[in-house]
Write a structure and sequence with these properties.
The complex is a heterodimer of chains A (223) and B (268). With 223 residues, chain A is an alpha/beta fold. Helices cover 32% and strands 28% of the residues of chain A. Chain A has one domain (4-219): 3-Layer(aba) Sandwich (Rossmann fold). Chain A contains 7 helices and 10 strands. Chain A is globular, with a radius of gyration of 17 Å. Chain B has 2 domains: 1-34; 39-260, MetI-like fold. Chain B is 77% helix and 0% strand. Chain B has helices at residues 8-34, 38-46, 48-81, 87-99, 102-112, 116-123, 135-160, 164-171, 176-204, 208-214, 224-233, 237-260. Chain B is globular, with a radius of gyration of 22 Å. Classes of the chains: A alpha/beta (223), B mainly alpha (268).
Chain lengths: 223, 268
């Protein structure tokens, strides 16, 4: 396994009754790390801390050797997909997928080409011109995934990104597209998941999070 | 549409007060319409002072509304999005112009311009004053009262917005300014328009504070509510009626527009 791409050192964070104390974790470049655990264990909190959406009380988060703790989310160079999809309601599916590229001043033609290509890989080409309120939960999640993947972020944070998809779509997205894209781009992925079959299909390692602490790390053979 | 399984009698009982009140309001305005004569219409539309009053009402209301929006958008955003020291105090202070009689606000403005700072602001640059008994005083009084309404409606729009969209945009590379203009504003747009419309409607009919701050100078600081007051006081009731009916129609159109845009809160 390659050197650590993400290193979390003694991370402390508390909000309300939830407490995360001195959490440390190392994830290698190109690794597919799955986080699992009961509700309220702090899985989403952990992703949001890495993404910079929450500010930890203390500790360090190093991405590619650089401490990003004081960097805002938009400077951390990572991608995140939340469970709900959260597509921008004022934009079509294609405009949603191209949003990040638009921010990076990619030409319109190139944006359309990249969005179409990613949509094809995730089987959502037919949705490109649709308004987002017309989509089902599973379709929303796939569009949200495409919107992040099209940016090819070196670190991908996935919070139950395909939980609303049906079994067949889940299998296709996970086994073929998501894993394939990860291997192609040598993406480092942290994926919050509940389903055992989902975990077995993609994980290189599985971290069990309980009460804000990684209690056990399991090595699987998905790679 | 009322489903058949509901009791028709109960619905009629609940609807009756609404119908009675709606008829009362409509009857009042219809009664005014019946008193309008062709001659009063001719006077209202040809008298230069009255035409100036209509123009001044429309233009000052529009200017104050734009000014209110300019203040209300960032204010509503920050009040909705952040909790800071003194948040509750600022929030209550903004409600004061809504709950107090507008006349009190007018008095407060007038008193302020009698202080050292106020005198300097009013007469520091221009000898005859910028605000007191000047058309700019109309805009100031309208702004002070109207901006509070505007902030309330705009803040309600921001409150209803799911802020996780902003977080999502940040993880896609958008900084705070880009989030605000590319994600937040396009999705609360109807609230901003509704805020503008209700503010315009509120200040269009404002009278008390304008009377105190800008006075009632015919052809200079006379606006439509002032015209109604002046025309009534000199016994030209029929001309006052025309102006009043014009205000009714303009306000009705504005409120319909506000409701169509999904406005809630103050007038919702």
């Amino acid at each position: 396994m390659s050197a650590a791409f993400l290193r979390i050192e003694d991370l402390c964070f508390s909000v309300g009754t939830f407490r995360m104390e001195r959490l440390s974790l190392e994830i290698a470049t190109g690794e597919y790390f799955v986080v699992t655990g009961p509700n309220g264990a702090g899985k989403t909190v952990l992703l949001k801390l890495i993404a910079g959406l929450y500010q930890p009380d203390s500790g360090a988060i190093l991405i590619n050797g650089r401490n990003v703790i004081d960097l805002p989310p938009w400077r951390r160079g990572l991608g995140m997909v939340l469970q709900e999809g959260l597509l921008f309601p004022n934009r079509t599916v294609e405009e949603n997928i191209a949003f990040g590229l638009e921010l990076r001043r990619v030409s319109k033609l190139e944006r359309q080409r990249a969005a179409a290509e990613m949509a094809e890989r995730l089987g959502i080409t037919s949705l490109l011109s649709r308004r987002t309120e017309m989509l089902s939960g599973g379709e929303r999640q796939r569009v949200a995934l495409a919107r992040t993947l099209v940016l090819k972020p070196p670190l991908l944070l996935l919070d139950e990104p395909i939980s609303a998809a049906d079994e067949q779509a889940r299998d296709t997205i996970l086994c073929h597209q998501l894993k394939e894209l990860q291997r192609e781009g040598d993406l480092t992925v942290i994926h919050v998941a509940h389903s055992r079959s989902e975990i077995d299909r993609v994980a290189d390692r599985v971290g069990h999070l309980v009460n804000g602490q990684i209690t056990r790390i399991e090595i699987t053979g998905a790679r | 549409m009322i489903a058949r399984r509901f009791s028709r009698g109960f619905d009629m009982l609940m609807t009756a007060p609404l119908v009675v009140y709606a008829i009362m309001v409509a009857a009042l305005f219809l009664a005014m319409f019946t008193q309008i004569t062709r001659e009063s219409l001719r006077i209202a539309f040809t008298d230069p002072a009255l035409r100036h009053s209509i123009w001044l009402s429309l233009s000052t209301s529009t200017a104050s509304t734009l000014l209110s929006l300019l203040v209300a958008v960032p204010s509503g955003y920050i009040l909705s999005r952040r909790v800071f020291r003194g948040h509750a105090l600022v929030d209550s202070l903004i409600d004061l112009p809504i709950v107090l009689p507008p006349l009190v606000m007018g008095l407060a403005i007038l008193i302020f311009f009698n202080t050292t700072v106020g005198r300097w602001l009013d007469r520091g640059l221009v000898d005859h004053g910028l605000f007191v008994y000047q058309p700019l005083g109309i805009v100031l009084a309208q702004f002070i009262v109207g901006c509070a309404f505007c902030i309330r409606v705009v803040k309600a729009g921001f409150d209803a917005f799911d802020w996780r969209y902003e977080e999502t945009a940040m993880t896609l590379g958008a900084n705070q300014v880009q989030c605000f203009f590319l994600v937040v504003i396009p999705n609360v747009g109807s609230s901003l328009v509704a805020g503008g419309v209700i503010t315009w409607a509120r200040i269009f009919g404002l009278f008390g504070p304008i009377l105190l701050v800008a006075g009632t100078m015919r052809g200079k600081t006379e606006i439509m509510p002032t015209t109604i007051f002046l025309e009534t006081s000199i016994g030209r009731l029929e001309v006052a009626l025309v102006i009043a009916e014009m205000m009714v129609l303009i306000s009705l159109a504005t409120l319909i527009l506000f409701k169509r845009l999904g406005g809630k809160g103050v007038a919702g």
